[in-house]
Amino acid sequence: MSAARGLLRNSAALAAGNFAASMLGLFFMAAFARSRGPEGLGAFQFAAAVASLTTLVVALGLDILLVREIARDRSRANPLAAASLAFKATLALPALGLIALIAEIRYGGPQGQVLLVVTAAALLDVMTATFTSVFRAFERMEYEAAVMIGGSVASAIAGASALAAGWDLVSVVSCWALGSVVKAAAAYAFARGRFVTGPLVSSRAAVASLAGPSLACGALAVIGAIYSNADIVMLQEMASQREVGWYTAATKLISVVLYVPSLLMASLFPLLSRQGSALDKTAAAASYDQAFYALLCMGLPAGVGAALVAGPFVRLVYGEGFEMSATALVLLSPYLGWFFINLVNGTAMMALGRQRFLAVGTGLATAFNVAGNYLAIPRFGMAGACFTTVVASGAGAVLYTIVCHRDLRLPFRWSLLLRAAASAAVMGASVSALSSFGLHVLLVIPAGAAIYVAGLRATGVLRFPAASGHRFPAAAGAPVSAEGSWTRT
């Protein structure tokens, strides 16, 4: 099977899994929000943010290393997976004990209990990620998709049943957490005998290959998580739980959209890792070039569209009481566009071994994010958090784009950007007109997408696959094989 066909197969599998998991998660979150209001949603999402920070200490950036190392040598799957599990298990119990102590002393009551339950589920997900990383390294993402769907179904059914029964907050969250148990059992069952054969026994070589690089990757993961969750934690402490609920309701909608570029880059990462390890970076440059401009052309309409349909879409999903979430979504719409670019740049830099530079850049962005939130939230509340996030993400997108293009000796194609931006502007005007005529938001969104694609075709940006298999023109100075850069040679 060619690499291009494998990429499409894996992307389709992850798309199906992520779409199903996202819709089930959105269903539960919408039901939870309608049942418990902004305060209850804020308590749940605050616990999730703290749990996310805790799991980084346990994960140590090991999962992305597993994908990269096993993709290069699949015979090492057993010892590498065993080493990863051993590292994580050594840290998981102390981390859970620390959170239990903090939950009791700092919060207590239902908030503390919710924090403990959500953290325990998140730590179990960290262990499960070892096996899903093996699936990715073998480029068999259909197993990861099955794990995601199974766990999401269990969480949605159990959590929604608890809501319908009128159970208290802690019981509802505990039922929702059962999905993590289902995911762990399914991932282990799929991995054993297919990809991880024989006993799970580590080796000195496996430990050594993970221990050193995991420090840099772990630091990057910790810094990135602080960057991603600082706004939520600081809103909780400096504003109100109601504003946390409004803000996280908006970011949840953004996260659903971001599944699309995330799964594309997850499928591309093993291939780009192999290409990036070669002395000749021609294939890696061509793959990055195609991926960068594909995601750029996806991010533009996503950001414009989010700003234009925020009001009706938030009302559709969350109902009354979340009008301020629409305001947050409008303010965060540039961040949505920036994220597409940051994702492809981050993927390329990790594959090319530039994680130290990425960690330094992310550290600077995090320092700005924390300082900006500290200054802006007391005065502007949720709007201050939105502004700080947009500025930090935009600066990172510009910096990493310059670095990746320089390292791979690629020119930046300004004409393509301008033509795509013009198409997005036409789409935005059309969406505004359709909305003013009273067309339902679920009809406006696909209509806007169709108009944007037509604009890309009319301006020559989008080229439907010809014999070469290219969707975008190759960058000047980046030779591509006759079969395309995503075809294994």
Model description:
The chain is mainly alpha-helical. The protein is built from 15 helices and no strands. The protein has helices at 3-59, 62-72, 77-107, 109-137, 141-164, 169-176, 178-191, 204-238, 241-276, 282-318, 323-351, 355-380, 382-407, 414-436, 441-458. Helix 1 (3-59) packs across helix 3. The longest helix is centred in the first third of the chain and has 57 residues, at 3-59. It is globular and about 65 Å long. The model is unreliable at 464-489 (pLDDT under 50).
Record the SSE blueprint:
Layout: H1 3-59, H2 62-72, H3 77-107, H4 109-137, H5 141-164, H6 169-176, H7 178-191, H8 204-238, H9 241-276, H10 282-318, H11 323-351, H12 355-380, H13 382-407, H14 414-436, H15 441-458
